[in-house]
């Protein structure tokens, strides 16, 4: 654990009348994606109950006495929305039992732990969907346990309590994304009201080019292009659709941790034509990458790649040019001539030039150096320019995305910025 990634000094200590009783399965307690225990660290009168151990079956009947009112927070049938009026029905202080885990786990806890059948079932009122989750959500209304606790205490206690908890949660999520190679160069001080993914004014995606047929945006690092296995953030497709008020069609992909030019079509016909240009190698792409290693003779990597282990390898070619160097690190221009999954990252790994900040194909030693020495916490790969013939006769397009602030700051420190 690096000092910059430690949350200890930012965890508030909040004394409340409401008592939170978090119930978790014993296998969930040690998972790094479990957010509930961090909420408990902030609440001085909260307690963790571990369920699922054969040698010690959990029984929560002891929570019930004449002095406290027990509510279980779970959106089951018949659950009442939390509200100030519901709280005012009974003057006793509240013990809020929160089942932790995915939907199936929480359902089992709410139904199978002795004592909870006696609790009043409550649910959160309808609110905004999560933009922060670090785990896959199976329901649109799904929230991380920490978020659910924060919102519940905002109703039962005060908006200030909710704000303190949500600020801590945001900081935790940004550190988590940084560790995965997908967040900005630093962690903003809390309170924070919006994700560190917006790059335009008013929190909108920055548009590099738009006409009646296509639109190009400046994708920030950490933003998914479209919904895949990960469901922890609103993807670029949905955000751009909401921003423009019309459907958009992604025609290529950038890795989540990569920044730069991202192209969309505004009709299925244009999408088909643009995808054909990509497949036929008729769209020129210029990437910028900072790697461990500098070799002026590295000009091309021709190395077939499989989409996944065990599948058939397909031809993959990337051209490289060394732009500059700093100590044992090289700054490269990369031009992929084919479009295989993680092609640039895998080709540079193949020639022992791993990209700085690549937690999948890179080297932890060098990633740590750049986090600690330069406070750089992301993948050092940027799609700088795209060149192609407009599919509807508007001539040759050259769309360029400037370096993100964190990448430009890093290159300035390394005296490499002028080589771009």
Characterise this structure.
This protein has 420 residues and is α/β, with parallel strands linked by helices. It has two domains: 3-179, Alpha/beta knot; 201-419, Pseudouridine synthase (2-Layer Sandwich), CATH 3.30.2350.10. Helix content is 25%, strand content 23%. The protein contains ten helices and 18 strands. It has helices at 36-42, 84-88, 103-112, 145-156, 159-179, 236-244, 268-279, 343-350, 364-374, 405-413, and strands at 19-25, 47-51, 69-73, 80-81, 94-99, 120-123, 206-210, 214-219, 249-250, 259-265, 284-292, 300-302, 305-306, 313-314, 317-326, 329-336, 381-389, 396-400. The strands form three sheets. Strands 7, 8, 9, 10, 11, 12, 15, 16, 17 and 18 form a ten-stranded mixed sheet that branches. A six-stranded parallel sheet has the order 2-1-5-3-6-4. The longest helix is centred in the middle third of the chain and has 21 residues, at 159-179. It is elongated and about 80 Å long.
């Amino acid at each position: 654990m690096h000092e910059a990634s430690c949350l200890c000094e930012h965890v508030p200590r909040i004394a409340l009348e409401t008592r939170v009783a978090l119930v978790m399965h014993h296998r969930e307690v040690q998972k790094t994606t479990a957010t509930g225990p961090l909420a408990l660290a902030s609440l001085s009168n909260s307690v963790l109950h571990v369920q699922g151990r054969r040698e010690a079956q959990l029984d929560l009947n002891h929570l019930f006495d004449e002095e406290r009112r027990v509510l279980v927070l779970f959106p089951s049938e018949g659950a009442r929305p939390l509200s100030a009026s519901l709280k005012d029905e009974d003057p006793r202080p509240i013990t809020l039992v929160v089942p932790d885990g995915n939907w199936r786990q929480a359902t089992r806890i709410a139904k199978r732990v002795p004592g909870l059948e006696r609790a009043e079932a409550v649910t959160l009122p309808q609110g905004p969907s999560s933009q922060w989750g670090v785990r896959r959500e199976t329901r649109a209304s799904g929230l991380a346990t920490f978020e659910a606790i924060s919102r519940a205490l905002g109703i039962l206690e005060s908006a200030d309590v909710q704000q303190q908890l949500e600020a801590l949660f945001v900081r935790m999520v940004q550190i988590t994304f940084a560790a995965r190679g997908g967040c900005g160069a630093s962690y903003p001080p809390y309170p924070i009201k919006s994700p560190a993914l917006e790059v335009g004014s008013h929190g909108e995606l920055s548009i590099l080019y738009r006409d009646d047929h296509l639109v190009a945006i400046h994708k920030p690092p950490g933003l998914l292009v479209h919904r895949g296995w990960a469901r922890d953030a609103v993807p670029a497709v949905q955000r751009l659709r909401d921003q423009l008020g019309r459907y958009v069609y992604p025609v290529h992909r950038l890795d989540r941790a990569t920044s730069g030019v991202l192209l969309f079509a505004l009709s299925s016909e244009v999408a088909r034509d643009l995808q054909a240009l990509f497949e036929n190698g008729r769209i020129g792409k210029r990437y910028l990458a900072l790697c461990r290693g500098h070799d002026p003779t590295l000009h091309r990597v021709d190395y077939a790649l499989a989409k996944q282990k065990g599948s058939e390898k397909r031809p993959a070619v990337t051209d490289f040019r060394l732009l500059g160097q700093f100590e044992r690190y090289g700054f490269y221009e990369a031009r992929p001539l084919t479009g295989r999954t993680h092609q640039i990252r895998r080709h540079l790994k193949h020639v022992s030039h791993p990209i700085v900040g690549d937690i999948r194909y890179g080297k932890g030693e060098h990633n740590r150096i750049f986090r600690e020495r330069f406070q750089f916490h992301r993948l050092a790969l940027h799609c700088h320019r795209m060149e192609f013939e407009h599919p509807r006769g508007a001539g040759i397009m050259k769309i360029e995305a400037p370096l993100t602030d964190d990448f430009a700051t890093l290159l300035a420190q390394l005296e490499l910025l002028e080589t771009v």
